[in-house]
Amino acid sequence: MGKQDRMFKKTLLIWTLPFVMFTGTADATMRCGTSLISLGDTVSVVREKCGAPDSSVEQLPVMRSGSARPFNAAKVALWVYGPRNGAYHHLRFLDDKLVAIDTRRN
Question: Which pLDDT tens digit goes with each residue over 7-37?
Answer without folding.
Answer: 544 444 444 444 444 444 446 899 999 999 9
